Amino acid sequence: MSQSTVSRRTPRPPSPWKPVKQSRKLSNPNAVVSLNGRWGYLFTAPFFVMFLIFGLAPIIYSVYIAFFNWDALGTQDFIGLDNFTALVADDRFWNAMANTFDIWLMSTIPMLILSISLAAVLHNPYLRGSTFWRTILLVPNITSVLAIAIVFGQLFGRDFGIINDIIGALGFQHIDFVQGTQSSHIAIASMIVWRWTGYNALIFLAAMLAIPGELYESASLDGATKWQQFRYVTLPGLRNTITFVLIVGTIGGLQVFAEPLILGGSYNGGDSGQFSTLTLFLFDQAFVAYKWGYAAAIGIMITFIVAIVSIINFYITRKLAGEKK
Amino acid sequence: MKSTILINPNKKPKWHKMGVGGYIALIITTFLSIFPFYWMFIVASNGTDEISKVPPTLLPGPRFFTVVSHVYEALPQFNQALLNSFYVGTAISVAQVFFSAIAGFAFAKLNFRGQKYMVLFVVLTMMLPSQLGIIPLFMLMGWAGLLNSLGALIIPALVTAFGVFWMRQVIDTQVPNELLEAASIDGAGVFRAYWNIVLPIIAQSSFVLGLFSFLASWNDFLWPLLVLNSPENFTAQVAVNQLKSSYAIDYALNMGGAFLSTLPLLILFIFVGRRLVRGVMDGAVKG
């Protein structure tokens, strides 16, 4: 529509301010060179200005106050690396770290397996009602963590939760999903799995649909079974997507706090800190103990941990997800 | 299957047929996806006593409006909280679409010095844990006098690296360079090219970005909890959390609140669910 509006006009000579020299190497090789690139500075300025004020400046300031004994009441004493040495010696920190990784593993692995399997089912062109199934998959993702945690908290309840009703009916002892360490991690991980499996299944499905159909055709001509098709055609084709989902999942998973916060109803992550996580510990120090310098140091440690785990993930999935192209 | 191929090589079955197992898996998934929402309503409409029985009631009860009235007794500002969430979500999604689309356009289609490094910078900022700067941000809001106001929720969220990156991908793949070249030969300036050509093409994707921003804002929990403290400024999430803390074990009340705060999203989802699905799939990393 707009195209014809534009092209109906009489061609004009190019405007004088079209400065890009074709000979110079373009900063953006895909750019439309006939458009004046300098507008780019203006167009991207709102993002950079806002990010500078509300994103970057707070982060830099956070690094600064990590070297201080800094609290909400006005104490501001420079103490060098003391916050970091205290943190390394703090049992609560290591406990939170262990819990975070346990919850992350218990949510990531089932979530990956379930979402790839669901995507494989949805990938079959003989499937009926595929739009309906796809839409259903996204339903859990639209709710708030708060609402989920309230419902799951009830479902996992020790005395009157449905899950314990089932466990009891099968003849086992009721499990306390809040007081136990491992069992509380299961409850939290299940909230994460419930919320993200469908979303990631759609991501994997999109990637599967991008795999050329000829590959499946030749595989089935070679007599490949369903499983062999999946193992030798689908899975290698998902390499980058698995890496992406894992890295995004790591960034989110290592910062998990809302589920444990609501499950326990406080920042301490359970009576004995059995489901305290790194970010929850940060908030506990920042907004309950008001030790802002110490909390900032925790934030920096989380950043390093997320970066290291993301890099490890990147290499492991490259290796695991099959042969190189 | 193997023998079919051997006997009749001309018939190339590209796909194995859909088995019953697949449908069973999908039906179980559907059940598990819907059940928590259904359960919210069951508990809210039966009251805490009914669901404490073994086996519990699995059908809606008659007490839903009683529970709702309890929610409004416990927190008379509950409607205001829903409205606040709506205002904040709308403001954020409109701003994010506006700023992200124009920045995404610049990153995708314009050539300016340093462009490459700026894009890299945007990607790197997406990797930063969002909690890292939360204490200084809180201090900043205090200095700016924005604590306990909806501005503290809106202003830091006006534009995100994710939105910019997403719009860059969308414009890069959906808007052909030839169209923009033709327009500029016809004498259109950068802004006219953006307005007349890019915007109509990306309208659908912008809508999806707006929806995601709205959902994220509606569901945001911790930041509103930190910066808001008077009930007339609460968002829906803070209000629901308030119910939780004032009545420790009243599940019916909690679930009633949770249900009321989720209902607008479920209704929205009925109308836009399919577009959201397409948005998620369009934005996926493939390969």
Shape of chain B: globular
Number of separate helices of chain A: 14
Mean pLDDT rating of chain A: 85
How would you spell out the order of helices and strands of chain A? Answer: HHEEHHHHHHHHHHHH
Distance between the termini of chain B: 29 Å
Strand content of chain A: under 5%
Classify the fold: give the CATH topology of the largest domain in chain A.
Answer: MetI-like fold
Low-confidence stretches of chain B: 1-13
Rg of chain A computed from alpha carbons, rounded to a whole number of angstroms = 26 Å
Helix content of chain B: over 70%
Integer tally of domains of chain A: 2
Structural class of chain A: mainly alpha
Please give the order of strands in the largest beta sheet of chain A.
Answer: 1-2
Q: How many DSSP E strands of chain B?
A: 0
Radius of gyration of chain B: 25 Å
Distance between the termini of chain A: 42 Å
* Name of the CATH class of the largest domain in chain A: Mainly Alpha
List keywords for this structure.
heterodimer, A: 325 residues, mainly alpha, two-stranded antiparallel ribbon
Topology:
The complex is a heterodimer of chains A (325) and B (287).
Chain A: H1 2-7, H2 39-65, E1 68-70, E2 76-78, H3 82-88, H4 91-123, H5 130-138, H6 145-155, H7 162-169, H8 181-209, H9 213-221, H10 226-237, H11 239-253, H12 258-264, H13 278-287, H14 292-320
Antiparallel strand pairs in A: 1-2
Chain B: H1 2-7, H2 20-46, H3 48-51, H4 64-74, H5 78-109, H6 115-127, H7 134-143, H8 151-154, H9 161-174, H10 177-185, H11 190-219, H12 222-227, H13 236-246, H14 251-282
Helix pairs in contact in B: 2-4, 2-14, 4-14, 5-9, 5-11, 5-13, 6-9, 9-11, 10-11, 11-14, 13-14
